[in-house]
Amino acid sequence: MQEIAREWGWSDHQWKGLGMIEKAVAGPDEDSTTMGLEASLNAIRRAGINPRDIGAVFFGTESKPYAVKPSATIIAEAIGATPLTMASDLEFACRAASEGLKASIGLIASGMVKYALVIGSDTAQANPGDVLEFTASSGAAAFILGSPGGSVAVFEGSSTYVTDTPDFWRREGSPYPRHSEGFTGEPAYFAHIIGAVRGLMEKLGLKPSDFNYAIFHQPNGKFPLKVGEMLGFKSEQIKLGLVTPLIGNTYNGSALIGLARVLDYAKPGERILVAPFGSGAGSDAYSLVVTDVIEEKRGKAPSVDEYINDKIQIPYSVYAKFRELILVMKE
Amino acid sequence: MRRLTEWSSARVWRSRVHRYRLIAGRCRSCGKVYYPPTDACPYCGSRDVDNMELPRVGRIISYSVIYATPFEDRNRSPVILGLIDLGVARLVTEIVDVKPEELKIGDRVEAVFRRVSVDGTTGLIVYGIKFRPTKAR
Amino acid sequence: MVYVTGVGLIGVDRHYDKSIRRLAFEATTAALNSSMVESIDFVIVASSISYLNESQLDLASYIASSIGLRGVRSITVESGEASGLAAVMMGKSLIDSGLASRVLVVGVDKLSEYPSWRIYKNLSLLYDSESDAFYTIGFGGLAGLLMRLYMDVYKVDRLTLAYWPALMHSNAKANPYAMLRFAITPEKVLEAPPIAEPLTLLDVFPLGDGAAAIVLDGKASGEAMAEIVAVETATGYQSIALSDDPLKIESLEVAYRRLIERTNVRSIDVVELHDSFTITGILELETLRLAERGRAAEAVAQGIFSIGGEGPVVNPSGGLKARGHPIGATGVYQVAEVALQLSGEFPGLKVEGARDGLVVSINAMGSSSYVAYMRAVR
Known about the structure:
The structure holds 3 protein chains of 3 kinds.
Chain A: H1 2-8, H2 12-17, H3 32-47, E1 54-60, H4 71-79, E2 86-90, H5 96-109, E3 115-123, E4 138-145, E5 153-165, E6 168-169, E7 178-179, H6 185-204, E8 213-216, H7 223-231, H8 235-239, H9 244-247, H10 254-265, E9 271-275, E10 277-278, E11 280-290, H11 294-297, H12 304-309, H13 316-322
Parallel strand pairs in A: 1-2, 1-3, 8-9
Antiparallel strand pairs in A: 3-4, 5-11, 6-7, 9-11, 10-11
Helix pairs in contact in A: 3-4, 6-7
Chain B: H1 9-14, H2 16-21, E1 23-27, E2 33-34, E3 49-53, E4 57-66, E5 79-85, E6 90-95, E7 108-118, E8 125-133
Chain C: E1 3-9, H1 20-31, E2 42-46, H2 50-54, H3 59-66, E3 73-77, H4 83-96, E4 102-110, H5 116-123, H6 141-154, H7 163-172, H8 186-191, E5 194-197, E6 199-200, E7 209-217, E8 226-235, H9 250-262, E9 270-272, H10 278-287, H11 296-301, E10 313-314, H12 319-322, H13 327-342, E11 356-363, E12 368-376
Parallel strand pairs in C: 2-3, 2-4, 9-10, 9-11
Antiparallel strand pairs in C: 1-7, 1-8, 4-7, 5-6, 8-12, 11-12
């Protein structure tokens, strides 16, 4: 954080106020597809399924390597799920992958597919020098969904809350998004997450104390604690799933990496709330109950904390080089 | 990263499966395994060959730290080229995510899926497998 | 019987003012005196990188007509770095088979045409695009990898491996056709900028332009400088990853075995071999059994292959390292140099009384290898 602040003349209050410490940066040969594939292989290892049985691959991102050409097919090919599978890239800012989760629940419950792979992956963009630069980072999470038997956690229910709200956007051809600062808060982030979570709790007749963990979309280290408090959750429920202070906001990975981390530690029988949010705007809320299958599947792939702790620190100059912020001739 | 001339769409497509999944050739006559797969065994010449997926962990046999990198690879220079032993077969590939001074012959490495070449700003991205040191666990 | 009856060499340098066709013309003129021009039956042009640099295919026809050999039979040979010796092999076979009596072999390539990074990319095409060169191999990437392996397996230190480039530079000082004509110490090699660690700038061939021409004749006339007794070749693996013993150049071992099966090779007095990188020279010495496995670097350091040493004199021209390596032309330079040694006319470091010579040319790290055995006639 200090590197960014020093570079652009921010005071340290700025990033401290966002609850930030560090953020993750994609290397020069990485993109949302490569990260998504690595996460997918980890998920498949834990699921212990034959990739051929995957009937849908949803890739949620707002940093597509190709504007037109799905990364989902590259991933589907790389894991061996092709050719008899659905595959598509979804866009809804940071909640695209979450749409994929909802769609997968329907596909599986209807019997149309046996397993679905949902990936949330981004190399998040921010205008250099903008406050967003403190948080925009790179990361991916992937989940294999299937019918309850053999699952590490089961969905009890879900709820979605969507409106046309222009809080944060990126026009075609623009390298960096624009955001409306304060407007991204109350009318966007808070309104939609609260709408979705209250909708879920009403539907299922649950209250905050029924949950062991609450994971919210985390654009910084403060908003999830605030929205949690507004909804009646305690910070102890939120802390484990709050990864942004350590890795930044991975956009589509945001809430989902938080969920992955909670699943690294959650015990059978515990209940998890996860509420992704995407600008534009919308939020989902899911209730998940952990099963005892989780104990045997957990160790089959690296944990989120292992990824967080395996890092190389780089100065701003190397970050700028990797993220192509420096104007270089291409040919 | 960019090729001298762009790989055709057809070439990118023909090679995708063995590039993505590290599919090697295996000779049913002499038993040797080799990458990339070819129509005949490079060892005994037999045409009785099939394919197999290679293991995704191995050890470094040797490596070189390349400073004479092409124009488009300046943003990741020096590039580390390695010869990796995967047990059943060996592979020449890049070693990534590590500082050169931290590498040693014999280090354990694992496969990762990465961009290998990008055809300018409008052409195709060619992905493939590179290796990085395994995380100490 | 095939004899070398004329040679023409251009100094290896950055000839910005000379085109490929001009270089080929000058080398050819030096090799022929004009009375023999009509009697050339075949022109073989050896060139490798020029296809990319010049955007030109079918080079032999265009060179043949531009150097005044209208209507001559011509063909282009491209075998990577070994194009020159491959072309000599083809020229010899035309004479051996009776299809020609006199063949002109011209090797030509320019490496100063573009900035080095672009040349390095062109040169990476010498390696397998499906395996090794699919990745960034830069310049010398594979050689650097093999050098590190050599040092690790045989416990040879970096300094010992620096005697080779020092010897090459020392030899080239006397060679008027060499590109680099300044002495260096082994210590200087270690201090030079890294190219593909552990290789430094002083372990790799310089980027220069060159052309060499030789006339091959089926008759031993008064002009015969040397006889090319036999040339053999073999292909190697696509990638060093396929070799169970990457510190031996298997294609060279096979080619050499074929050579000695085909003809009686007496003890060798002079060798011009393909030291594109320090390690390639070292591995060739060991593959040819001129030194034991793991001991060649030491042997070089002890002066075994220098003038006056116990072994054959290796690369008195300065080799690819100091004389230079204009890719497609190199093999022709090497044959011309050995012919000059065997006729006592080499204008640089002379190997006195040399009767038997060997020329070794390989592509990349051994995707193909060529070996020629030559004998004095005078």
